[in-house]
Amino acid sequence: MNRDEATKRFHGDGLAELIDESQPVELPTPDTDVPMVSRSVRLPVETYERVRAAAEARGIGVTTLMRQWIEAGLADLDDSATVSLADVRRALASLSRPTAA
Question: Which of 9, 27, 70, 84 is most buried, most CB within 10 Å of its CB?
Answer without folding.
Answer: 9
